[in-house]
Specification:
The chain has 19 helices and 10 strands. By secondary structure, it is mainly alpha-helical. The chain folds into 4 domains: 68-99, no CATH class; 123-329, no CATH class; 335-398; 439-545, no CATH class. Helix 1 (30-38) crosses helix 16 (438-456), helix 4 packs parallel to helix 6 and helix 5 runs antiparallel to helix 10. The longest helix is centred in the first third of the chain and has 27 residues, at 121-147. The relative contact order is 0.10. Its main location: membrane.
Length: 546
């Protein structure tokens, strides 16, 4: 076969009527079909490109010490030790790197005053102190909304009540600053027990409405009460931990680190509640799975009330510290704007995660307190960020990683289905369950061969077979007939003589001993050549439809 000229091998044996060269039907080269089929049509990325973990070598038969947080069952570092299937060496990987990021972030916050520009030192130190206080509040609020699953909007009401109560006691009874957080914790306990009672009967939207009403009730009461400074816009003059004889920088620096300590206490409380028994119980009873948790003996209602009360104590403690930090409190802490800003901090960072509460607070405080020169535009920007997070992110900023991995896995499966289409080749799900892996390569080769044979089918080739079903054929037709002859016996076409030398019919073999073939069609053929051509046409039709 050279180009489109077929050289007859019978010519050199002197067969009568055999021509030396015959023009062949144009067809596509099998090598071109092979190259097109074996070349992947989807981009193949290196394995591990998007999820790369550094792997340390093993240390004999010992694993690294697994330190745990005090009072919890959580390990400081989640280290996985596995054997490399290629090198058969023990390797260790840090799977969860969040503790490392926490340490680096808190260390950077501690050292930030050393690198702050002198012109913005006072502004940044004040914003940092405000951020720490609001981060501590949001951590306690995250325990209520995220861990306990109670949609309470009264967190700032508890903080404000503790701040007003301790400020009044400090101004009128001379309560020292170090006692204000402790007394505030007691006020938070009382308020928490009162607010927790409706949580037993109400849930979801109705409880949120109740807590909003409670927050507004506190605002209206203090706004109209002479004892709580209705004429001065708040209650001021409480004792403070900041020495008044220090200069402004030293006062701001002390306030910065004192508020940072309160935020660390809030993180410790979050870890103590969420990582221990109460947190594990409530993770068994998320929304829409409460009946299952109750059926297994989990008293999730009592656990929710305990988390709510403990968080209220923490909020009251922060309220007492708030009064000692600002030497009083204003009515704005009860305002609906404050509640919305706090809710924006939680939504932007991601509800249910401590890092979401802290980072969301940092973003909102940066826009609200540092960029004061932008005016009302900063509030519009906060609203746009919150709207974008709600519309496009499922779990806030810290849910981007999981959301991206889900999207990437979906695209990978789509590309995989494009590569392994069902046209005779196995899908990945079938390939993993097939024990004989030679079958995979045979199915792939058979698919490529069928794709090539479809290109050689033409009216000229069919006409050639009609004129001469048996005997010497051109190279494309001979290749096609050889493929048909190698087909398995199951459902293979054959001809049966209805009346010898006069009538023939097409049947399909069963492929099983003792099972008669089935009749394919009722058409009767008058000669064997006509019947052979009928079988050929059915095989060609099946090939084109495969």
């Amino acid at each position: 076969m050279t180009g489109h000229i077929w050289r007859n091998p019978l010519y050199f044996w002197g067969v009568e009527g055999a021509e030396k060269e015959v023009p062949s039907i144009p067809h596509k080269s099998p090598q071109d079909v092979w190259d097109e089929t074996t070349t992947s049509k989807a981009p193949m990325l290196p394995v591990g490109r998007l999820r790369y973990y550094y792997k340390w070598p093993g240390h004999g038969g010992l694993t690294w010490p697994r330190f745990r947080y005090w009072g919890t069952r959580r390990r400081a570092l989640n280290i996985r030790s596995v054997y490399n299937p290629k090198t058969m060496r023990l390797e260790k990987t840090i799977v969860d790197k969040r503790p490392i990021w926490w340490v680096l972030g808190l260390l950077a916050f501690m050292l930030a005053p050393l690198v702050m520009p002198t012109s913005f030192q006072n502004t940044l130190l004040t914003a940092g102190a405000t951020f720490s206080i609001y981060a501590a509040i949001n951590l306690c609020w995250m325990l209520i909304i995220g861990t306990a699953g109670i949609y309470s909007l009264a967190s700032y009401a508890v903080v404000g009540a503790a701040a007003f109560g301790t400020s009044w006691l400090s101004i009128n009874l001379g309560l020292p600053w170090w006692a204000l957080p402790l007394v505030g914790a007691g006020i938070g306990l009382v308020f928490g027990m009162i607010i927790a009672v409706p949580a037993i009967r109400l849930d979801g939207f109705y409880y949120a409405l109740l807590t909003i009403g409670l927050n507004e009730l506190c605002r209206v009461y203090t706004l109209q009460s002479k004892q709580f400074g209705s004429s001065t816009g708040g209650l001021y003059g409480a004792d403070t931990y900041i020495p008044q004889g220090w200069d402004q920088y030293d006062q701001s620096l002390l306030a910065y680190y004192a508020c940072f300590g309160v935020m660390l206490a809030g993180l410790a409380l979050y870890r103590f509640i969420d990582g221990r028994r109460l947190g594990r119980i409530l993770k068994m009873a998320p929304e829409k799975r409460e009946a299952f948790a109750e059926a297994t003996g989990v008293d999730f209602r009592r656990a929710r009330i305990w988390v709510f009360v403990i968080s209220s104590i923490g909020l009251g403690f922060i309220g007492g510290f708030y009064a000692a930090h600002y030497r009083g409190v204003s009515f704005s802490i009860f305002s609906f704007d404050t509640v919305l800003l706090g809710l924006a901090m939680l939504v932007i960072g991601g509800i249910g995660r401590a890092e979401g509460a802290v980072v969301g607070t940092a973003i909102v405080i940066l826009l609200d307190k540092v960029l004061l020169s932008t005016g009302p535009l900063r509030l519009i920007l906060i609203g746009l960020i919150m709207l974008g997070v709600v519309l496009f992110l499922k779990g806030g900023l810290f849910g981007i990683k999981a959301q991206f991995r889900a999207w990437r896995d979906k695209k990978k499966s789509e590309r995989r289905s494009m590569r392994a289409e069902k046209g005779g080749e196995m899908l990945p799900e079938e390939a993993t369950e097939t024990k004989d892996k030679d079958l995979l390569y045979w199915r792939r080769y058979d698919k490529m061969q069928r794709e090539f044979l479809k290109t050689v089918i033409s009216p000229e080739l069919i006409e050639e077979h009609r004129k001469k079903p048996l005997g010497q054929h051109s190279e494309p037709l001979e290749r096609l007939l050889l493929y048909f002859r190698r087909a398995p016996q199951n459902d293979k076409y054959a001809i049966v003589a209805v009346e010898p030398f006069k009538a023939y019919r097409i049947v399909a073999l069963s492929g099983q001993r003792g099972v008669a073939p089935r009749i394919v069609e009722d058409k009767i053929y008058t000669s064997t050549d006509e019947a052979y051509h009928g079988v050929f046409l059915r095989r060609v039709q099946d090939l084109l439809e495969s």
